[in-house]
Task: structure prediction
Amino acid sequence: MSESTTISRRRFLAGAAASAASLTLAACVPGTAGAISKKPFGRTKHRSSRIIFGGYALSSATDKQKVRLTLEVLEEYGINHIDTAPSYGGSHIWLGMWMKDHRDEYFLATKTDKRTFDGAMRQIESSLTTLQTDHVDLLQLHNLVDPGEWETAMGEDGALAALIEAQEQGLTHFVGVTGHGVTAPAMHAKSLERHDFDSVLLPWNYPMAENPQYEADFEALLALCKDRKVAVQIIKSIAHGGPHAGASRSYNTWYRPLEDQTSIDRAVHWVLDWKDAFLITSGDMDLLPMIAGAGSRYRRGPSDGEMEQMVADQDMMPLFT
Result:
């Protein structure tokens, strides 16, 4: 790495971790606490890093240098799994350029938000072209929680049939389903009754766990997935839940995230304490080193008392109700 690249990289990481100045150097400089741990991603036999890069972070990117430095964070922390979607702005384009030289290094996942067979197949083929690869490792039905859309997607000429066709053609190795909102766990359980998906994806964080029904549905889904060896991916782990106006600056997320390193560490560690779960990073490039650093420092989760105190101090609230 050239001297100029090293200096640029330091500036990038320093800027991303500015709010963590009160921590020790070893606690906030990426790479000093070791690589993020890996475990089998469900039944796939791939040993994925427990922190998965959320490709939405690249959705609004315009600076090629910053994108490259962001993706080098994955290499530094040993993050070997990427999740993206065709609806994530320029994410597919940026990742496609990276995949040209790095495809074999990553478990690559994308999604389709189309509900019909024809629509999904067209989107899958377009995604492969943009990602500059002949296959992905995981193809997921994107945010399938609406009952009407679920019936269409799971029907004879629905998107599920397209995923199965793509799998048979070798365009994807595995298939999954994702969802947002409080009905996601129950809808995923329903999806697993219809098809033996390899993975699910849904929101989970401490404020959401304070919703008794959501907590019960999440834990039931987790037990089902553990029994069937279905991988569980978590999103919105560092969501603050409050209005954007309360944040110190704007972020490339539709929700307000936690901003200080101590709170991010606690939120990430709380999720990682669910031993069967993988955590997908938030959709902002500057937050990536902070989340990755938190993942590398994980040893055990915080106590309920620590989490309750953080929720009270930060005035956090559930993202979905």
User: Anything to note?
Assistant: The two ends are 47 Å apart (CA to CA).
